[in-house]
Amino acid sequence: MELTKEQIEIVNSSGNIKINAVAGSGKTTTIIEYAKSRPKSAKILYLAFNKSVKLEAMKKFSEQGLTNVKVETAHSLAYKHIVMGSDYRVKAFSYKTHEIAELLGLKGNGEKHNEFVIANHILKFIAFFCNSDKEKIQELNYLDTISDKKARAFVHSFYDYIVRQSRLLLSRMDKGEIEITHDFYLKKFQLAKPNLKYEYILFDEGQDSSPAMLDIFLNQKATKVIVGDTNQQIYGWRNAVNSLEKADFKTFHLSTSFRFSQDIAGLAVGILKYKSHLHPHQEIPIIGKGTSKKINSKAVIARTNLGLLLKAIEYVSENKNTKRIYFEGNINSYTYADEGASLYDILKLYNGNHRSIKDNLIKSMKDMEDLEDYIKKTDDMQLGMMVEIVREYGNEIPGIINNIKSQHVDNDDKEKAEMVFSTVHRCKEWSMIPFSWSMISSMKRN
Fold this sequence. Notes:
Elements: H1 5-11, E1 17-21, H2 27-36, E2 44-48, H3 51-63, E3 69-73, H4 74-83, H5 97-104, H6 114-130, H7 149-174, H8 182-191, E4 200-203, H9 211-218, E5 223-228, H10 243-246, E6 250-254, E7 256-257, H11 262-272, E8 287-288, E9 298-302, H12 305-318, E10 325-327, H13 343-350, H14 360-363, H15 368-378, H16 381-393, H17 397-406, E11 419-423, H18 424-428, E12 442-443
Parallel strand pairs: 1-5, 1-6, 2-3, 2-4, 4-5, 7-8, 9-11, 9-12, 10-11
Helix pairs in contact: 1-2, 4-8, 5-6, 6-7, 8-9, 12-17, 13-16, 15-16
């Protein structure tokens, strides 16, 4: 394969560098060629963003005979240094609100459900701290992360208590008294200030790394390469920072995409111009050298599962003649919030059918008004969206969901779907975009 001029400049570079790469610009190929051009004896670490990227990278480096390249994620690296050989037990799934309330014996000053509201904020505060580069939780102001007025007022009134209980929960994890989370052992790894024995460290998808991950990377003595796309940050809501902008390295660009043609490249440039933070001197030309084939599918893209489900319900309700739709991923997962509450549990609460509710938090609510009060105090957008769906469609929901499932096509027939539904992060994992760009719904809140 013939490399572009931009790729050749990167391969021949020296010192710490950052690479701003547009979608489909061959960044993996570039990184492989960069590694191949280094001495065979050089120890190289490739940091992938998640497990699926890690497995794909391992395969590609192996095919190139690059046995001197070790592929890890930040979490797998942290796990080997912190968890392996220790007495720590890692919790398979995140702690739920009711579990935290029980573990800490939380008190709500006699106010209904306050212990659950406090537990919810403790979970968020700990995630905020564990993903930060700070050494102590007291160095952060959790109030800075809350925009809703009622939620801010609640946290302000219980702030000292929330801080104390958050520190207590972290202490109990540290002592091994309770199961630790994945965020916790990554944080402990960062605070240990590890010295990784590599001569080169290649950090992929840098735009979505957390401050904790970035701190580990920047503090290494190795020659560092960070690659990503400042315009593809999709995990800001999970405490990620745009690390490419924070790394003070010499900048290189990969601006030619082999995934799409120039007409789509032109559309992308036009959209990026609307980004408020993009100043003229930051503009990066996008050159499309891919070949486009006509695909009749359209798509709706949302940030969350529930935001996507809401759009699917609206679409199916308004388009009675639709026969083929496709959900990226398991369609059943779209009826659940991150903490495990089901849309059907909210519907049971709506109907006063408490005995059939499975989720402990939802079961503790007397009625929908109780749940809505909890949502306002926690600023829980996912539960809020579930309530919106139930209020709007009520007992029609089971029939609508069954109708959606009946129209769902298999993965092999995805390109035959009239409408494709995907979250942003699932969409980003596609090797090719299998739909027309004429209908994309980008929903900030959803």
